[in-house]
Design a protein that fits this description.
This protein is an alpha/beta fold and 286 residues long. It has one domain: Rossmann fold. The protein is 42% helix and 11% strand. It is built from 11 helices and 6 strands. A 6-stranded parallel beta sheet has the order 2-1-3-4-5-6, sandwiched between helices. Helix 4 links the parallel strand 3 and strand 4. Helix 3 crosses helix 4. It starts with 6 loop residues before the first helix and ends with a helix. 42% of the residues are buried.
Length: 286
């Protein structure tokens, strides 16, 4: 038995790495992570993008993932993010921030940059699965029978008001601003890009007509959006997520991007995406 024991092979497993920590990634400015519409993630973790924030900190990036009102119109949410930008700048002493926004958060920051005089405090805006051209999922929800729509709206507002009582929630009003007509006809024309800020975007495709499966709970909406807009991540289509310089399309669902409903086997995919996003910002000199 002892003769068969390979001591060198066994000890090799315990060989020390000189630097066992995550790779150091250098950015010139801290990162503010801005979450999107909804409160599901906030009910089971400190904030929707908390896991992303912790991953960034592992790479030595000063990063922050605060909570704001989960259900409110873009204008209201944008004002809340302005407060957060000012708080992070005061905390870090930085002159600017790199903003990374998920989903509706990207619309909030675009509004803040164009209409709330925040451009001087933002170096770059990177959006992930943001509905820059609206989403048919919002239209589907708003077309539900009036009684159902009102009851759901009341329920979501109740959740939002209890989770974040500082600002009154408005789930229906904010959903109306996510429709394709509103974004294309009203929001985009009045919210141009600011020349001094670099805009990047990532889209995502899973499920219908892809090789990446999507969880059962979002298959219906994945198919619904595909029939109306094409490839999507279960909430936002690929073509709607493209804005500024489109970096790439990833293969994580809208929920997986926040590390929700993410199978353990898919964690490396999630880690690789967010690390590559940081490397891209570093390469661009931000």
């Amino acid at each position: 038995m002892l003769d068969q024991f390979n001591r060198q092979k066994w000890l090799k497993k315990f060989k020390l790495k000189e630097f066992p920590q995550s790779d150091y990634i250098k950015l010139n400015y801290p990162v503010l992570l801005c979450h999107g519409y909804g409160s599901i993630a906030s009910m089971i973790k400190p904030s929707p993008l908390h896991d992303v924030c912790m991953l960034m900190r592992e790479h030595c990036i000063p990063s922050f993932a605060p909570n704001i009102v989960p259900y409110a119109k873009i204008e209201t949410r944008a004002e809340a993010w302005v407060d957060m930008i000012e708080q992070v700048i005061e905390t870090t002493g930085a002159s600017k921030l790199n903003v990374v926004a998920h989903s509706m958060g990207g619309l909030d920051i675009r509004y803040a940059l164009s209409n709330l005089d925040m451009a001087a405090n933002v170096e770059s805006l990177t959006t992930v699965a943001t509905p820059h051209h609206g989403t048919s999922l919002a239209e589907f929800a708003l077309n539900a029978p009036k009684t159902i729509r009102e009851k759901l709206g009341t329920f979501f507002d109740w959740i939002g008001d209890n989770l974040y009582p500082q600002i009154k929630s408005d789930s229906i009003g904010s959903a109306e601003q996510l429709t394709r007509d509103y974004i294309e006809q009203t929001f985009n024309p009045s919210t141009p890009n600011v020349p001094t800020v670099s805009y990047y975007s990532y889209s995502a495709t899973v499920g219908e007509q892809t090789s990446t499966p999507i969880a059962m709970i979002t298959r219906f909406q994945n198919k619904l959006i595909y029939d109306r807009e094409g490839l999507n991540d279960g909430f936002v289509s690929k073509k709607s997520a493209i804005w500024g310089k489109h970096v790439k399309s990833i293969h994580l669902s809208h929920l997986e991007q926040m590390k929700l409903n993410l199978d353990k086997k898919r964690i490396p995919v999630w880690q690789k995406f967010w690390t590559e996003l940081l490397l891209h910002l570093s390469k661009q000199g931000h």
